[in-house]
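Crash report, auto-generated. Payload:
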Amino acid sequence: MAEPIIIFDKLNKWYGNNFHVLRDIDLNVALGERIVICGPSGSGKSTLIRCINRLEEHQQGRLVVDGVELTDDVKAVDDVRKKVGMVFQQFNLFPHLTVLENLTLSPMWVGKMPKKEAEAKAMAQLERVRIAEQATKYPLQLSGGQQQRVAIARALCLTPKIMLFDEPTSALDPEMIKEVLDVMVEMADQGITMLCVTHEMGFAKAVANRVIFMDQGQIVEQNTPTEFFNNPQNERSKDFLSKILGH
Amino acid sequence: MTAQTFESIAARTAPVSTEGPIAWVRINLFGDFTTGLMTVIVLAGLLMVLPQFFSWAVLRAAWLPDYDACRVDGVGACWGVVAEKYRIIIFGRYPYEDQWRPLLATSVMLAMLVGSCTRSFWKAWLLPAWIVVLAFFFAVMYGDFAGLQKVETDRWGGLPLTIMLSTLSMMMAFPIAMVVALGRRSSMPAIRTVCTVYVELIRGVPLISVLFMASFMFPLFMPAGVSIDVLVRVIIGITLFAAAYMAEVIRGGLQAIPKGQIEAAATLGLSYWQTQYKIVLPQALAMVVPSIMNNFISLFKDTSLVTIVSLYELTGALGLALNSDANWRPFKIEGYLFIALIYFAFCFSMSRYSIWVEKQVNKGKAR
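Recovered output after restart:
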């Protein structure tokens, strides 16, 4: 079997002295694998994926992303960030830049790409998320669903090997969730490695190779979506599923 | 249930007009009882004050530079003082026959200032162009070349000095303020402490004492034989003073930037300085435009304090013009009104410009 693209090895993280947010996380992610992470709030799901591009620092254990171990070494962090795209719950688009400028920023300033080339690349990504006609608008002039698709396109402009989604649809109106999920399903078809914190169980069933259930900083259960939803093994997962699928 | 038929209703005009000057007065000045009452009170107040001022300032005023005419009973404002003394008020102690030099130098600088306020000047050549303009200003003012008489900086004065002091201090204070504001939020304790101490120290003392220190104490610390021109020391003093206040204003803007913006920049691989330059500062500064302009305006007027270290800028030059001349000394009010008008023209322009800048930087917020 090929070397996993992400390796968590007995990873621990604390907020302050007493809040043990991630506890002995062991997780290997294979290249091209699509993982959905779910669990109650405060269970450490977001923190887990935010460790991957070092928005959060871990204090114990090892974390290796595409052959680079994440440490205090700034160079390693920069290296990893070039390979990892991230989509946030609150979109985090830059409101003072147009959609196109949001997308070209990183290719031009980090990738040192000429403006023309960066814009061509950006437009291609906007086509991909079906929003090319909004390129000259400012983010706040768009609907939430449109903004989130722009955010996805912006992350894709890095040509990342790995995409992280931190509750990408939680801040959206119900009728906009589908347009964002559709884009994510298409990405999944193209073989990019995806880690997605979400409670969209339909998405998990359609796309994920594996569902991870977390509680209190631990990985409680992991399984294929079919197995996980139809036949959860753990009391906590059963309880959680009954709550979110209860209606 | 009966079937409903749809009939379209033709558009009609509103029963009460809301357009035109009469409607505007009715709605805005006499909209309800309180509004109407306030309008009447304010109008009455204006009626009590304005006619008398108008009579004093215009109808009964003496316009000729003749101080005897001003002393006649019943004469109002004596604008003759301005006609007589405007050269000293505007140019201070600068040699009379050479006053075309500050006029030329200041005109060029003002033209550059106005130009720099417009979009067409926001290019890479702006900074070099400013260096050229400032070099030109100092060369023409100082002279000592091409047959121009040498004029020491202690004889510079009046409006040119006011404009030069405030322009230079603003241009230097702004970048310092940005760095200090970032420094106060730095993750490195040493930098944070230095910046905090600087801001608190400067904010803790009045500008007048900063100027005193720059002028009289600073030379004590210099090695013997080294002396820095008092004008330079004063510019540094004002700059450091203004920068401390501006840094706090900018820090307020920085604090309002959501953490998600910085995280998003980080995930895109931007470095610290790239993040500040492209993401954080543009948004933070856009938020504090009115406060920064507020600082600029008060800085412009604060330059009048340099009089205490014997630099006679606009306000100082007025004192110079009148105190030395017993005949005109009683007409200070008119003199002060004159320079007040000059100050107002500059400050009001800055204030209007600030509104335009706000519109420019808030484009992304328009829905």
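Post-recovery validation: The CA atoms of residues 50 and 116 of chain A lie 32 Å apart.
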